[in-house]
Amino acid sequence: MAVKYDLNEREVWDGNFAASQSLRQAKVDVVAAYPITPSTPIVENYGSYVANGYVDGEFVMVESEHAAMSACVGASASGGRVSTATSSQGFALMVEVLYQASGMRLPIVLNVVNRALASPLNVRGDHSDMYLGRDSGWIQVDAFNAQEAYDLALCAFKIGENHTVRLPVMVHQDGFITSHTAQNVYPLSDEVAYDFVGDFKPVDDMLDFSRPITYGAQTEEDWHFEHKARQHKALFDSREVIDAVFAEFEKISGRAYKRVESYDMEDAEVAIVALGTTVETARVAASELRSEDGIKAGVVAIRNFRPFPFDKVREALANVKSIAVLDRSSPGGAMGAFFNEVSAAIYSTPNRPLVTNYIYGLGGRDFSIEEAKRIFKEQKENADAGHIMTDIQQFSGLRGPSLGFFKTKRG
Amino acid sequence: MATTSIKNLKEFSTTNDRFEGAHTLCPGCAHSMIVRELMNCTDDNLVIGSNTGCLEVSTAVYPFTSWDTSWIHIGFENAASAISGAEAMHKARKKKGTLKDNDASVKFVAFGGDGSTFDIGFQWLSGAIERGHDFTYICLDNENYANTGGQRSSATPIGSTTSTAQAGTHSYGKKEKKKDIVAIMAAHGAPYVAQLAPNKWKAMAKGFQKALETEGPCFINTVSPCCTEWRFDPKDTIGITDLATDSLMFPVYEIIDGHELNILYRPKTVIKVEEYMGAQGRYKHLFKPEYRHIIDKVQKDIDEQWDYLQRREEARI
Fold first, then answer.
1. Burial (Cβ within 10 Å: 0-12, 13-18, ≥19) of residue A318
2. Which residue in chain B is spatially nearest to A56 when comparing CA positions?
3. What is the number of domains present in chain A?
């Protein structure tokens, strides 16, 4: 039996500590991991729980992130609760196995502390790694602060392990800004948290020898398509379970989560659509602009990056006039990926708002309230003019000459 | 540990058979002999991991499987990690009492070809051995990437022609010597390491049983002659294996705890390696006058290694 860990009603935790506490409370059976900045403390904290008897599960420190996810797959197929953490290059090294984990429908929970991808080498936060996972078949939820990193990690187990879902889940938080910033966090008691997550109920358990199971079979053109289609359907169908888990979590915690989080959008004329800690910055800017300049600004945050909430995005942005979609990842010769997805969602709305793309914050470049206000103001100008006044894609916060691409006379 | 009797082949062949005959390995492939022997030498429950390779693609093509036991394949390189995870989960669940049968005896085994063992999965294997998981890794060594049409691996011997190290007017095939995987694994401090061959079936079964009985990570390199890429008649698999072990190209031996070396098969008459090479198409070009020196070099290497193994055995260090 694990040693009792004393918790206060209010703790001061950073995002990494919050994530590691959720692993402890969920009584994870196997953590197989490899350290990488900025997610290392999740693994280190967990290591201290192991060393001091606060957890009963196995802790396997492997020789690479690829091996970490591989061991997670083997462990998960063996019928127990599994979790790990990574960032950036480590995430990139895992990618092969991420697809295999989701293809085998294994409900592993991966805490991703978002960080830029080299080169140039950079340890700070942007969303390059999160974007790299977007076609991997995992559910992706995004925390904007330490409290959410804790809450959503608990929810992640319950979502992924649901027998109608059976998919792995990534819980994202921003490197350093969330992972290394101590904030007030209100944890659940161990009993309430575990009661919420529940016992792991295995499906196709490799350690149940009364029913031999083959994992990782080969399919070619005869069956591969059907498998991938079912997986995709399971991802889209998980929306109902995610909503239900969030609703149940609200009952025990008082904290409400939605797949798309709208802030001041009821009468908004202009909006920022964003992910991560930027959401909180944009909310402050929107609020200040409303009182300072009378600009009806709102913020739409994507909590559930995958399955992409196509319908909810459309609803949230139905009545707005001009939208800035903020991509914190180098777009690599295209419009930002997030911009493309949001634009696709609103294209079929009757109102079809103007939409522009801001590339910002790469490699941890600070995103300020002032910058958010400037972006809102540009949207206001677009809205008043009835067409886009700026380049459709702009680099925001870049040193040196401004950088932007594509102009349009109309919206 | 429930070992099965290995008194005679007829009896042994009727033991618990958890590897179905209906697979798509080439006729004459030694892989299935080795795998069946491993699975038949114990009555314990087995969790098996396979790297991508001939064995994997030939035994689990949806909606069929040849494995009447728990089996997992992830990728080319990571069966050792998958089995590490499974073994860790078994420990965790046994401790917590959440297994369906908490008293069932379980053995963890990973299979890989030489490509996935010597090359692409080397790090994953090394890590799993270093961490001390209780499992047995078995390399099915056919000295090339046979699954993808016979490319060179670091297990390919010098002078062998492969599709990526070809013999031609300016080349005698692969230029480099084979990696000594057995020594490398022994140097990890693995409690049981061996090189075994399917023609010496009794030694192989005993070696498998010893590995399964030994607590901790064990490594076995098995010779698996490949009629397709070595270019011999499928009916001659065991005959070729006899030439491999009798020429000492593949000495059969074990190393216990990294130092205690035992030779498990000592040929009554040691044959020349050119007899072994001459029986296979992959070495045909070496018999041209300009490449004969490679055969001489291989013979010299074999003689030196055999001498080394015997000295190690005698010295017990």
1. middle
2. B92
3. 2
